[in-house]
Design a protein that fits this description.
Layout lengths: L7 E5 L8 H11 L3 E4 L9 H18 L3 E4 L2 H6 L4 E4 L6 H8 L3 E6 L2 H9 L4 E4 L18 H9 L5 E4 L7 H6 L4 E4 L1 H4 L4 H15 L1
Parallel strand pairs: 1-2, 1-8, 2-3, 3-4, 4-5, 5-6, 6-7, 7-8
The structure holds ligand 3NM.
GO cellular component, one term: cytoplasm
Protein name: Thiamine-phosphate synthase
Enzyme class: transferase
Length: 212
């Protein structure tokens, strides 16, 4: 994968969206997101065939836009529909096992310490996400708020490895995350709950461009 694909990395599931997830994703694409992760979690989350059908529709939109379509945690679904990749946490299957299953696809791993970061690299991850950088209401079982210190340390040691920040990132604070060395920002609410998701995505893209 290219680092530039992390610039504005939108994540969403149906419970995160104010309108339909298809509409929200289309607006985010029109605003210039570079990658999308389908993360169908939380109250009211779809499962089984209904989840798969939505995934296929979102995948088609990403394909048309030429951006990677990543699935959170559900490795079986990712393989079933030939998604471009998966994103896993520390509680999921080991990244080395997922790497084998996903073959040439993108594998992203959530990390919270330098040790987890180095393990993810050794296991064959293509990028890591680290957070929560700021307070987030979207995920309740996060680690303590980390700020940008770890991103700086990670970039100092591995300047070329793709890193994205996550958790409570907004148009206002995204610049701080980029300046700490992140290759991009992962957001749910900043786009999915925006009055104008297209504009929000475009503003985040502008923050990325002006910090390069
Ligand atoms: N992972 P929002 S924080 C999915 O810290 C997720 O690993 C996190 O949502 C982590 O952009 C988070 O609305 C939620 O804050 C991000």
């Amino acid at each position: 994968m290219e680092k530039e694909q992390l610039a504005v990395y939108f994540i969403a599931g149906t419970p995160n969206c104010l309108t339909t997830i298809e509409e929200t994703l289309q607006a985010a694409i029109d605003g210039g997101i570079a990658m999308f992760q389908f993360r169908e979690k939380g109250e009211g989350a779809l499962t089984g065939e209904r989840k798969k059908q939505i995934a296929l529709r979102l995948q088609a939109k990403c394909k048309q836009a030429g951006i990677p379509f990543i699935i959170n945690d559900d490795i079986a679904l990712a393989i079933d529909i030939a998604a471009d990749g998966v994103h896993i946490g520390q509680e999921d299957e080991p990244a080395s096992v997922v790497r084998e299953k996903i073959k040439g696809g993108i594998v992203g791993v959530s990390v919270h310490t330098m040790d987890e970061f180095e393990k993810a690299i050794a296991d064959g991850a293509d990028y890591v996400g680290t957070g929560p950088i700021y307070v987030t209401a979207t995920k309740t079982d996060t680690r303590p708020v980390a700020g940008t210190t770890l991103i700086r340390k990670m970039k100092d040691k591995y300047p070329d490895f793709p890193i994205v920040g996550i958790g409570g990132i907004t148009i206002e604070n995204a610049e701080e995350v980029m300046k700490a060395g992140a290759d991009g920002v992962s957001v749910i609410t900043a786009i999915s709950h925006a009055k104008n998701p297209k504009q929000a995505a475009s503003q985040l893209k502008n923050v990325f461009s002006r910090t390069q």
